[in-house]
What we know:
199 residues, mainly alpha, globular
Amino acid sequence: MAENPTRLTRRSALKAAVALVGGTLAATELGLLSKSVAAMTDDSAPRFLSQDQFLALQQIVDLIIPETDTPGALDANVHHFIDLMLAEWASPERQARYVGGLEDIEVRARKAGADSFSASTTPQQIDLLHSLDKEAFAKDSKDIFFSELKKMVLFGYYSSEPGATLELRYQRIPGDYLPCVPLEDDSRAWFWNGYSYGL
């Protein structure tokens, strides 16, 4: 039976994530991936990245989507999600790009006077990420690592339960038919599983 393209399912979200890292996913692997993602905890060891790279990734995702009055990317285990995608389904070229990109972040942190990105102060980390962001989204930029990483963070977060149900407004489909719903002025967007984050 074909999936309804307008209905959010864990299966469709995971397929999209795998496509993002340049891999393919057989139907028999979907169950394993679902269990792996669900089992991720704060103390789970990284599967692909080194411990230092994983710590830097953890801090980066926290700076991209920090915890406010709603959970942030750390609460959604986005760093584990990205590491799992790199370990199990990313192409060798994409794996190399992420390792090289994280190494470049470490080099830039040391040039700025810190021992490492993780040892940098929060303002130093934010300044470094702002520089990367400006370079990555500049016209004619050839370095796609940071823009790709940001898109992966957004995808991982907003397809997670806290991202879709607490950060955004989420209405279960099909749900109740409400022909006229007043909008509340609280700046929260509606969750839409058809949004691709430019991927």
